[in-house]
Amino acid sequence: MQVRGLQTCQSLRVAVWLLSVCLTNPLRQYYYGVMTTTNDVYNERARLVAFLATIYPSHIGYTDPDEPDWPVVIIEAPGGQMSWHVSPDDVHMFDHVEPTNRMCRGWDGHSTQEKYDRLERTLLHEKSAGTLGLLLTRDLGDSRGE
Question: pTM for this one?
């Protein structure tokens, strides 16, 4: 499995830890000392979604007529399809994600609760398959090129 976009194993560990935090309460806003606005929370979530999109097939597009200025990222993971709206300020994090086209599978109608249930199933799948441990221990190099 190829992981693109993350420079260090430490970044990967932090991302997986944050994903586990999201599983316990996906709507809770966390305070990290600098995260105090809604934009900060959206940015943090976008980073996690971008991480997921490096691992699983995904696409991004302006497909929600109710939110035409916010693109939707759809991720097809082992636990099922998941999707998130992304702030226009965070679209640059998704340069590695294919744009939505007519061949892409559209939103399957899942609710927010179903999405986070699927995220939990995906995490359990990766743990049972042993791939989560590989992601956590794999040496991905250093952002300084070492």
Answer: 0.69
Answer whether residue 120 is part of any domain. yes
Helix orientation angle between 9-24 and 38-55, rounded to the nearest 10 degrees: 110
End-to-end CA distance of the chain: 22
Q: Is 146 inside a domain boundary?
A: no
pLDDT digit string, tens, across residues 109-132: 999 999 999 999 998 888 887 766
- Total domains in the chain come to 1
Q: Give long-range contacts, CB 8 A cutoff, 24+ apart: 9-12.
A: 9/136, 9/137, 9/138, 9/139, 9/140, 11/140, 12/135, 12/136, 12/138, 12/140
Decide if 60 is inside a domain: yes
Residue 142 domain-assigned (yes or no): no
| Spatial CA neighbour of 73 closest among 44, 92, 55, 99 | 99
Q: What is the pLDDT of residues 51-60, one digit of tens each?
A: 999 999 999 9
Q: Residue 110 is encoded by which pair of tokens?
A: 């899942």
**Domain interval for residue 77:** 9-137
